[in-house]
Amino acid sequence: MDFRLVALERWLGAEIPAISFTLAPASEDASFRRYFRASLADGRSLIVMDAPPATEDCRPFVRVAHLLRDAGLNAPQVLAEDFLQGFLLLTDLGTATYLETLNEGNAADLFQDATDALLRWQLATRKGELPRYDGALLRREMNLFPEWYLSRHLGLSLSDDQKNDLERSFSLLAGSALAQPAVYVHRDYMPRNLMVCDPNPGVLDFQDAVEGPISYDMVSLLRDAFISWDEERVLDWTARYWGQAKKVQLPVNADFSEFWRSFEWMGLQRHLKVLGIFARLNYRDGKPKYLRDMPRFVGYARAVAGRYGALAPLARLLDDLERP
């Protein structure tokens, strides 16, 4: 028996005692959270989050939801909360994700909406509201790459020279990230977490938000885990964001070429982290579906590392690791 689901149904019945409902799975993510869609007898639908307190904390979700909504973004409204049991009742943003909806004909419009929302989010930044995306966190994330991807997934042990090359590359990537102006960062601002709705987009999966590098969310949007775009289009969309950011006086670098380098290096940090996370999801958490998207991230990482002389040791390492 699913005892948490039984407890969730009992809790929801107490929150909406005068209305009958049925529950159906709505979605799941890489964490231990689950989401159910409650279809109410009066025709409405709501979302119920199940976040086991032993592994998940609902409070950051609630705090960031308020920050997003205060910034004018379409995030779910928290209607009821039970932190002790790990249950939240939320408004429903629908079923149409960007990932499922994007195509050649609508991509420009959908990404423009996402860019507009991102600018509002960044402009709302207030110091001290969110944890800092500091050097320690950046390093912990990148260390997932050798621990879970190289060692556990590929079964490789690095030589001393390879370890030194990787460490120097990590230092460069962390230094670049920390040198960027700090704004609110969603941290998973990607098509799977954006909903096509009115107002567009709806924003989900934001509980890990931090204050950090200004390029982070834009590179998450355009160099995604599950869908890729040609480099010319990524460059054009990034330049449009940069132009709009300057116009509204966000602290982007005045030189687009410098912003583009920071964007690429920030993406590389994220790609190395995600390779480690995807391997960990398989071997530790029993979620193998993420393995099929690893080659996309390896491709992103090799392309970026190969474009910059300072990252040539990392490019060589990635080439060596991927040889049969």
Helix and strand layout, with pairings?
Blueprint: H1 3-15, E1 21-28, E2 34-40, E3 45-50, H2 59-70, E4 78-82, E5 87-91, H3 98-101, H4 107-123, H5 135-153, H6 160-179, E6 182-185, E7 194-195, E8 202-203, E9 210-213, H7 216-222, H8 231-247, H9 256-283, H10 294-307, H11 312-322
Helix pairs in contact: 4-8, 5-6, 5-9, 6-9, 7-9, 9-10, 10-11
Q: In summary, what is this structure?
A:
This protein is 50% helix and 13% strand. The protein is an alpha+beta fold and 324 residues long. It starts with a helix and ends with a helix.
What does this structure look like?
The chain is 50% helix and 13% strand. The chain is α+β, with helices and mostly antiparallel strands. It has two domains: 89 residues, Phosphorylase Kinase, domain 1, CATH 3.30.200; 225 residues, Aminoglycoside 3'-phosphotransferase, Chain: A, domain 2 (Alpha-Beta Complex), CATH 3.90.1200.10. Helix 4 packs parallel to helix 8, helix 7 packs across helix 9 and helix 10 runs antiparallel to helix 11. The protein is globular. The N and C termini lie far apart (46 Å).
Give a quick set of tags describing it.
two-stranded antiparallel sheet, Aminoglycoside 3'-phosphotransferase, Chain: A, domain 2, 50% helix, five-stranded antiparallel β-sheet, globular, alpha+beta, Phosphorylase Kinase, domain 1
Are there runs of 5+ residues with pLDDT below 50, and where?
none
Rg: 21 Å
Give the topology string: H per helix, E per strand.
HEEEHEEHHHHEEEEHHHHH
Q: Write down how many β-strands occur, each being a DSSP E stretch of 2 or more residues.
A: 9
Backbone shape: globular
Question: What is the CATH topology classification name of the largest domain?
Answer: Aminoglycoside 3'-phosphotransferase, Chain: A, domain 2
CATH superfamily of the largest domain: Aminoglycoside phosphotransferase (APH), C-terminal lobe
How many domains comprise the coordinates?
2
- The level of helicity is 40-55%
Q: Which class of secondary structure composition applies to the elements? A: alpha+beta
* CA-CA gap between termini: 46 Å
Give the integer mean of the pLDDT values. Answer: 94
Count of individual helical segments: 11
